[in-house]
């Protein structure tokens, strides 16, 4: 079974030449940045063949680091890049977006302002239209605004969307998951929406193998099917090891067949993103 991680952040230290966004210092996953070389060592140790690199929002809308990593290691990395949708030139950038080596699509976050208001007020409706026109898959982190994403999915049926972290709010833990997971399940009716079962261990306070997560994962897979559920680690945001994030799915979920694991652990994300080198 080939394992492809649907989300890992890498980033560089803040410098005068490469400043972070205003909220960066308080939102970084850890004090020491994760670079491509350390990530490759961690992937090898955990049995992960490839990873989708997602630039973290705290660094700002920049893709230089992930583009360099994909250029040097095209067989290991793909990219879901960031776009400054508030800038007029973004409309022209999207036209040739996937011509950048390693670039598979765009990642958008709507868990804070002003991006949340841009979504709710329709200020970025042009973006969804362009992504559909240019066949650009979009990963979205949108806790609390799932109904708006449902509208987008219905309005743009050829737009491939991936809901990050099952659209769970960052503060949710343990028993609160029962109510928090309900919104994302409503999206299963849209064939152009998939979900990323990523970062899940951080939503519980119990130790590995995080048994309280198992019924929620099973419920999501029953709703979306194995071809629309993608495993991802969000490695730097976890309180467990990279290997444990892998084996949670590969060894601990008794309800998964070998065919289920093949799709969820790697084949599904490669197919959805048209990640040709990973197919």
CATH class: Alpha Beta
The whole-number mean of residue pLDDT values reads 95
Count of separate structural domains = 1
And the CATH topology? Answer: TIM Barrel
Q: What would you give as the CATH superfamily?
A: Metal-dependent hydrolases
Poorly predicted ranges (pLDDT <50, ≥5 residues)? none
In the CATH hierarchy, the architecture is Alpha-Beta Barrel
Biggest sheet statistics: 8 strands, parallel
Rg measurement, Å: 17 Å
End-to-end separation: 12 Å
Estimated helix fraction: 25-40%
Describe the structure.
The protein has 279 residues and is α/β, with parallel strands linked by helices. The protein has one domain: TIM Barrel, CATH 3.20.20. The protein has twelve helices and eight strands. It has helices at residues 24-27, 36-46, 64-72, 90-93, 115-120, 125-133, 146-155, 177-180, 182-185, 214-224, 242-250, 258-272, and strands spanning 4-8, 50-53, 77-81, 103-109, 138-141, 161-163, 193-198, 229-232. It has an eight-stranded parallel beta sheet with strand order 1-2-3-4-5-6-7-8. Helix 10 (214-224) links the parallel strand 7 and strand 8 (229-232). Helix 2 packs parallel to helix 11 (242-250). The longest helix has 15 residues, at 258-272. The protein is globular, with a radius of gyration of 17 Å. The model has no long low-confidence stretch (mean pLDDT 95).
């Amino acid at each position: 079974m080939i394992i492809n991680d649907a989300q890992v952040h890498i980033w560089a230290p803040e410098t005068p030449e490469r400043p972070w966004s205003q909220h960066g210092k308080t939102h970084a996953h850890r004090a020491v940045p994760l670079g491509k070389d350390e990530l490759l060592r961690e992937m090898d140790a955990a049995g992960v063949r490839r990873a989708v690199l997602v630039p973290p929002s705290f660094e700002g809308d920049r893709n230089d680091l992930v583009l360099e990593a994909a250029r040097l290691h095209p067989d290991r990395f793909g990219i879901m890049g960031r776009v400054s949708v508030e800038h007029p030139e973004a409309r022209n950038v999207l036209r040739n977006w996937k011509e950048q080596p390693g670039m598979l699509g765009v990642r958008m976050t709507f868990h804070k302002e002003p991006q949340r208001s841009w979504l709710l007020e329709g200020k970025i409706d042009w973006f969804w239209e362009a992504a559909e026109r240019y066949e650009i898959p979009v990963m979205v982190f949108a806790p609390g605004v799932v109904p708006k994403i449902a509208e987008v999915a219905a309005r743009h049926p050829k737009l491939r969307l991936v809901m990050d972290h099952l659209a769970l709010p960052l503060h949710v833990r343990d028993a609160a998951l029962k109510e928090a997971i309900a919104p994302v399940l409503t999206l299963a009716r849209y064939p152009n929406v998939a979900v990323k079962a990523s970062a899940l261990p951080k939503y519980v306070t119990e130790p590995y193998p995080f048994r309280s997560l198992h019924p929620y994962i099973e419920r999501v897979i029953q709703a979306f099917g194995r071809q629309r559920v993608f495993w991802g680690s969000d490695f730097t945001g976890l309180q467990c090891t990279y290997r444990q994030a892998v084996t949670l799915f590969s060894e601990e979920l008794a309800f998964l067949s070998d065919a289920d694991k093949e799709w969820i652990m790697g084949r599904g994300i490669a197919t959805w993103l048209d990640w040709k080198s990973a197919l």
